[in-house]
Design a protein that fits this description.
TIM Barrel; nine-stranded mixed β-sheet; 4 domains; Chitobiase, domain 2; 20 strands; alpha/beta; binds acetamide; six-stranded mixed β-sheet
Amino acid sequence: MPGKKSLFALLVLFVLIPSFLFPQIYSENYKQQQNDVMPYPRNMVINRGLPFEVNNEFSATSAIGASKKLTLAINDFSEKISRKTGIVINEENKFNSKSAGLLVYAENESPAGIITDESYTVEVTQYRIILKAKTDIGALRGLQTILQLVQFANGKYYIPACRISDTPRFPWRGLMMDVSRHFMPVEVIKRNIDGMAAVKLNVLHLHLADNQGFRVECKTFPKLHGLGSDGNYLTQEQIKDIIKYANDRGIRVVPEFDIPGHSTAWFVGYPEYASAPGPYEIERHFGVFDPCFDPTKESTYEFFDKFFGEMSALFNDEYIHIGGDENEGKQWDANADIQAFMKKNGFASNHELQAYFNKRIQKILEKYGKKMIGWDEIFSENLPKDIVIHSWRGKESMVKAAQLGYASILSSGYYIDLCQSVFDHYFNDPLPSDIYLTSEEKKFIYGGEATMWAELVNPDNVDSRIWPRAAAIAEVLWSGIKSFSEDSLENKFILYRRFDNASKFLNEIGVKHQSNRKLLLAKITDKPELLENILKVWEPLKYYNRHKYTKYSQSTPLNRAVDIAVPDAPLSFEFSYLVGRIITDKAEKEEIESGIKTIKELEKTCGEYLREKQNGNIEEIEILAEKTKSLCSVINGLLYCLQNKTRYGEESVNFDYYRQPTAELELTLVNPAEELYKFIERRGHIK
Ligand code: ACM
């Protein structure tokens, strides 16, 4: 029986043939697909025995009674199997544990909580699938794994014979959705909860209030949502519905009310709690702003006592996130009463004043049975040990908190709004083997969260910024496969293919990261297929660089090519991979030929786009097409020389011209093209 290591060695052999170069081999490669499960289970052994065939006899049922959420999950599982395979689930077998193909044993019902046992085991033989878990939530996780194992080969659907024993590495595996800067309605949140469930993320952190909007109905202080949201807020009924939907999928919902800064929207209705007189308006732009709660007045704490009393009853999780980030305290500096208060109480800095505020808020939360979590700025040692530090400015705060006995979660390195490559997130492990922490201290690292800040996304494109990269983060937090920890070209190739498969799976289960792009493309061009192909080599500018080119506000339409393009542009990795193989002398003749074909097709696509003039504001897309076409021509020349061992005609190519951002996008072919050029130059094949 192959162990995990030898299985991976085998996998490496199987998948080193690039999929885009040899699509027929790729699709027929039945064996490799079983390794596409994401997150990869902690222990999975594929047996040599015959696989389980999913056919019209199939049904799934619970063996020992099931909680409501497990019943829902088994039904949902059956529906998804049915839709994927086209089989009609056998209704007669459905509740018959003797004949059911999948039998689920879950010992206990468990609420979605931080100490929930999520472990499970699966055994698949040709006759039956047995899923066992201590809790119904563990069973839910197992069902998601089995669903991803279904594969098609030789005209039939199978689940490979295997044995899995799985349990998460970290208990807190989150996705933060910012619904303040751009409002996200219920259906957007729900379909992203589906995505979370599919990859075993278990905390939905809702960033509900910021300068740009207060997004939850508050009955005690109705001007919060009434004046702070333009009418775009979640009612309490909707919040309850979201919580139920998430909890039914074993997912907690942690609300964030960011205070004392990031709070302009609160003051539109209640300026009396701010540190400077109003009036205030909802902030339309993005950045760090001055409005800030006045921490020196007792009335502020009376307000928060009532506010958190109401919100503690609405949200059922034991944690409430108080934000606490990026408060520069400018309103505090300018307020004589606040300065006098600081002096009287011996507060030497704004940080000390904020620590006083945090402590008061923490007491209020405690009164309502809640624990506090906040961004790393909230840290001060006089806080009780049950708080959680949310590390975003770097891993140091996570390490420091753990050393001092405080729990923490990591988001530094998981900012999916910054449009970095999936590899950047994947190789950002909260607990790499060389981390300087004792085994006791390591227990304080609860996990991490992908953060989807919403300055530059709206309901149309938010899915494509979250997925599939959040699936990669989910894998780091669930299993963190050590075999992939080395950042090599070969490992990246395997990962790339696995991310691509995760993306397809997420598409199947209803996340709209692919389908919404098609709708957006059709909105901005009459030739959506052509533009889609051109954008396969363009990625949005990373980090905060887009803000250098456009002064974004809530009313910017977000309907440009850059809003449709995605990080990890489909052809960019594949071209880098090809060049990587060429310059290490590994590329076969066929690979180079196939590369030439792909680049030629792209050049042709650009030509077609440019020939048929478009309506509307598409000037910037024409520039993208021109630039792509021109670089494709250079690359083709280079690949031709390589293949035919001739000289490249141009003395120099101005790669910097191609590297310049265009329409807030970057052309991903440039760096590998330059590497290729230098390689050919080294061989003396440049004129
Ligand atoms: C943050 O990104 N300001 C937490």
